[in-house]
Amino acid sequence: MRVWVQISEAYTCLLSGARQEGEHVVGYSRVVRSGVPRGGGGGRRNHALIGLPFLFIILGTAALGGTNVARSYRKQKADYPSHNPFLP
């Protein structure tokens, strides 16, 4: 049971980026995995800002695809008109 508590505390510490005052934690938390010393604030990233450009790319691609589909649909409807009242 004690191992589970230690794993949970370590995972929480990694997610929050906060430093804890413990002899085994202080030595490790001073250096991140890249080897660059971390500032005193904890160095927490804003993941929403990191993913924002990718969201714009996806939405822009969907919008351009939608306009191309609508344009080709209107062109085909004009080229081949249907007199069926159940079709648009």
From TrEMBL:
This is Transmembrane protein. It comes from Solanum commersonii (Commerson's wild potato). Keywords: Membrane, Transmembrane, Transmembrane helix. The chain crosses the membrane at residues 48-70.
